[in-house]
Specification:
Number of domains: 1
CATH topology: Lipocalin
CATH class: Mainly Beta
Order of helices and strands: HEEEEEEEEEEH
CATH architecture: Beta Barrel
Number of helices: 2
C-alpha cells in the first residue's frame, strides 16, 4: 500500500510539472505575423533579447542603433499569472538605464501559434486577449532553416 501511494504521488508530481504553463523558453525563436497587410517577424533569443523586422527594417535586439545612440531591447515574461505577461524593455548603458517599457500579455495556443496583445505606446498592460483589439496579433513560429555551405559562401561574400 505504501509503495502504491508513493507511486501515485510521484505520478501526480510528474504530471503537474510537465503540464505547467509555458515558459519563456517556449517563446525562443522567430515568429511571423501580418498586421494591416504588413508582414513582420519577432525574434525572441535565448539570451533574453527581442527584435522586430518589419518592411525589411530591423528594430531592437542587442546593440540596436537609433538616433546616434546604442540600445538593447530585452523581453521579460511572467508565466505564473494568467494571462501570461511579456514586457519589451529598451535599455542603454549596458543595460543600466531603462529607457522604455512596453507591456503586454500573451498566450501560446500551441507550439506554433502565439497570440500577443501589446501596448507599444507605454500605456497600461492589457488585461485580456481580445480578437477585436488593434494591439493584438497572432504569430506563427517559423522553422529554422539549415544553411548549406553553398548558401553560407554566398551570404558572406
Amino acid at each position: 500500500m505504501k509503495n502504491s501511494t508513493i507511486s501515485l504521488l510521484s505520478l501526480l508530481i510528474t504530471i503537474t510539472f510537465s503540464t505547467q504553463s509555458v515558459s519563456a523558453q517556449s517563446l525562443v525563436g522567430k515568429w511571423k505575423g501580418e498586421d494591416n497587410g504588413e508582414v513582420g517577424v519577432i525574434n525572441f533569443d535565448k539570451e533574453g533579447y527581442v527584435s522586430f523586422t518589419v518592411g525589411g527594417e530591423l528594430v531592437g535586439g542587442k546593440n540596436y542603433q537609433a538616433e546616434g545612440l546604442t540600445f538593447d531591447m530585452y523581453y521579460e515574461t511572467d508565466d505564473s499569472v494568467t494571462p501570461h505577461t511579456v514586457d519589451f524593455i529598451i535599455k542603454m548603458d549596458d543595460g543600466q538605464v531603462e529607457v522604455a517599457r512596453m507591456q503586454g500579455i500573451y498566450n501560446l495556443l500551441d507550439k506554433k501559434t502565439l497570440v500577443i496583445n501589446m501596448k507599444f505606446d507605454g500605456t497600461d498592460r492589457p488585461t485580456a486577449l481580445d480578437d477585436d483589439s488593434e494591439d493584438q496579433i497572432t504569430l506563427k513560429k517559423m522553422k529554422n532553416k539549415a544553411v548549406s555551405s553553398e548558401q553560407w559562401a554566398v551570404t558572406i561574400r
